[in-house]
Specification:
This protein is of the alpha+beta class. Helix content is 51%, strand content 11%. A four-stranded antiparallel sheet has the order 3-4-5-6. A three-stranded antiparallel sheet has the order 7-8-9, with no helix packed on it.
């Protein structure tokens, strides 16, 4: 390749510049990438490249730096120049106080989700002052999104789903409008021209319901994945042992021969182009080539990532920033015992913290360090790219690194996710929807916090370990299981029961239980229900009309009226016939019947009439009054 560059460009070997390699990289296919990257390393070691040349060609070809807010907004080709300038000025004003990722997200929200959508559906608008119809139409479109899903036959089906980020988008747009107003008071010449009424009210950005829904989804996700962690750990260990056994058998087998491992037979290639003379690929009996080196690499880093994440609960970016210097030892002042600690670099909240290294985690870290050490016994120092801030970090002895494409680089977050999910696919576990179960690195963080709190770790200690600013965030990560609430309630009842006499909790006989249930059956009467206590007899010899514990149903009012009329007729008959002994009892029943009828009518009237709560006057709610003295000469 170097000879081809010399023939094409002219000059000698030391005349090859960085631009020549970049030009050749653009003209070549993917198979030449490794050779070009290797050549760049050689030229850098020879000292023929400029002093300010990047340590790797990957810095130039694969990673871009931060983009100016003006370029971020211009990606969406807004038609209204005035609004475009307002968004750019707003991003420039906000950028010193926030990180680059926030500025980029704001540009997407304001330029794409908000104004580009309005220009697409309402042409001719050239001001932030939106009418009610335009803002309402935009909110309606924002509430849903179109999702394209590829079917098994290759066709693409479009479906409409609710947009979960709608409240967040409206919140950022509302902040954009509300920030312009106070800025206009301070710098009217710069901001006054863009001030307009905010089209989003405070009631539209209430996130309590969305937060509860998110909490419910995350708790369900954690409950579904916590029981799968032991199976995932076993699958990772098994895959790593099998991959190492296959690679070891391949290295021991001569070229062109067959070897058998774990019941599978493979054929070693007859030739190889690798420098060490050993191939990493072999052929299956069906003629399919398998890269044992790539399989072992994927299995090892999957095992290392799973073990580190589940034992520490750190974030994925914190995992990528772990370095050899992060492993420190601490001597207890009281006993002199040396305790290994893991120093977590500031990540999301810029809070540096120390975690206790368990024996299991220490075994994982020592294995990783042994794997990545160079020939001199040191962990290679490599630069890493911060995808959030779009800057290159200074070289560090990172733990999650490997040599690939002729250079050492940090493992990407996508590679770690793919390694974990490929390991999980071997378990055959399914989620609640019947699809293969998947893990995100952040799932281990939620599982770690949930498992720690459920096993007795105080929440405020879990907050320190997780690096949260507020304990509410930590408790939001913890998924409370219904079974745990039930067991806690049962334990509370057991403690209360221990304080009461034992004889109160004897086993009820079937006869007693039938008698208890029969009591409620015998409460049903023609006029309603008898509400006498269990175990008591009827005090009125079943003269229910006289009984104060009779509850008459509203539907039985006609029957009660008939009883009253019948009693009146019987009293008249007794008076006519001279049955003086019955008149007193009939009169008592009539009195009680009329009382119950009056109570029932009053109850029905209360349900039908409206209640005026009233509005208190100012003098009724004022807390205190003040007296203002009138100056002399004024009336």
């Amino acid at each position: 390749m170097i000879a081809e560059i010399i023939v094409s460009q002219g000059g000698g070997v030391r005349d090859i510049a960085v631009g020549d390699l970049l030009l050749w990289l653009q003209m070549s296919d993917s198979r030449e990438t490794i050779r070009i990257l290797t050549a760049y390393e050689w030229f850098r070691d020879l000292g023929s490249l400029p002093a300010d040349a990047p340590p790797t060609l990957r810095r130039i070809t694969y990673r871009s730096g931060q983009v100016h807010p003006e370029q971020l907004v211009d990606r969406y080709q807004l038609k209204c120049q005035s609004v475009r300038d307002a968004i750019v000025a707003y991003l420039l004003e906000r950028s010193p106080a926030v990180d680059y990722g926030t500025v980029k997200a704001l540009s997407t929200t304001l330029a794409l989700r908000f104004w580009a959508d309005i220009e697409r559906h309402h042409s001719g608008i050239d001001s932030l002052h939106l009418s009610t119809e335009v803002s309402a139409a935009w909110k309606a479109r924002l509430a849903t999104k179109v999702v394209r899903k590829r079917q098994s036959d290759g066709s693409v089906v479009e479906t409409t789903e609710p947009r979960r980020s709608a409240v967040a988008v409206k919140t950022q747009v509302r902040a954009f409008y509300l920030d312009l107003a106070p800025w206009a008071l301070e710098e009217p010449e710069k901001w006054a021209g863009w001030v307009a009424p905010c089209p989003i009210s405070a009631a539209e950005i209430v996130v309590k319901k969305a937060e509860r829904q998110l909490k419910s989804r995350m708790d369900q996700r954690t409950r579904e994945r916590l029981p799968a962690v032991p199976m995932l750990v076993k699958a990772a260990e098994r895959r790593l042992k099998e991959a190492q056994a296959r690679l070891r058998a391949l290295n021991e087998a001569p070229l062109g021969t067959e070897f058998t491992v774990s019941g599978e037979t493979f054929t070693v290639p007859k030739t190889t182009t690798r420098i060490n003379g050993r191939p990493t690929r072999a052929w299956e009996s069906q003629g399919v080539a398998r890269d044992f080196g790539a399989e072992e690499r994927l299995a090892f880093w999957a095992w290392a990532a799973i073990e580190t994440l589940r034992h520490t609960g750190i974030r994925i970016e914190e995992l990528q920033e772990l370095g050899h210097h992060s492993i420190i030892s601490y001597t207890l002042p009281t006993t002199g015992q040396v305790v290994p600690l893991l120093q977590i670099a500031p990540s999301k909240t810029d809070q540096e913290r120390l975690l206790l290294v368990t024996p299991e985690l220490a075994d994982v870290l020592s294995t990783v360090v042994s794997r990545i050490r160079g020939t001199d016994g040191r962990v290679p120092v490599i630069p890493s790219y911060d995808g959030h801030e779009r800057v290159w970090n200074p070289p560090m002895p990172l733990l999650f690194q490997e040599s690939h494409a002729a250079e050492r680089h940090r493992l990407s977050a996508n590679f770690i996710r793919r390694a974990i999910n490929e390991t999980l696919s071997d378990t055959g576990l399914l989620d609640s929807a019947g699809k293969p179960l998947t893990f995100q690195p952040h799932d281990f963080r939620r599982i770690f916090i949930t498992d720690s709190i459920l096993n007795g770790l105080p929440p405020h200690i879990a907050q320190v370990i997780a690096g949260h600013e507020h304990i509410g965030t930590t408790m939001g990560y913890a998924a409370i299981y219904p079974a745990d609430a039930i067991e806690a309630h049962r334990a509370f009842i057991a403690r209360r029961r221990a304080l009461r006499p034992v004889e109160e909790y004897r086993t009820v006989t079937p006869e007693e239980w039938d008698e208890f249930l029969g009591h409620f059956e015998r409460r049903k009467l023609a006029l309603g229900e008898c509400c006498r206590a269990y175990g008591t007899d009827c005090a009125h010899e079943h003269a229910c009309v006289r009984c104060p514990v009779l509850i008459v149903h509203a539907t039985e009012r006609p029957r009660l009226v008939e009883i009253r009329e019948n009693l009146q007729a019987r009293i008249q008959e007794a008076e006519r016939e001279g049955w003086l002994g019955e008149i007193e009892g009939l009169q008592s029943s009539l009195t009680h019947a009329e009382e119950k009828l009056a109570q029932l009518d009053a109850q029905i009237a209360r349900k039908q009439e409206a209640v005026d709560l009233g509005i208190p006057a100012f003098r009724e709610i004022v807390a205190r009054t003040t007296t203002v003295d009138t100056p002399q000469g004024l009336s």
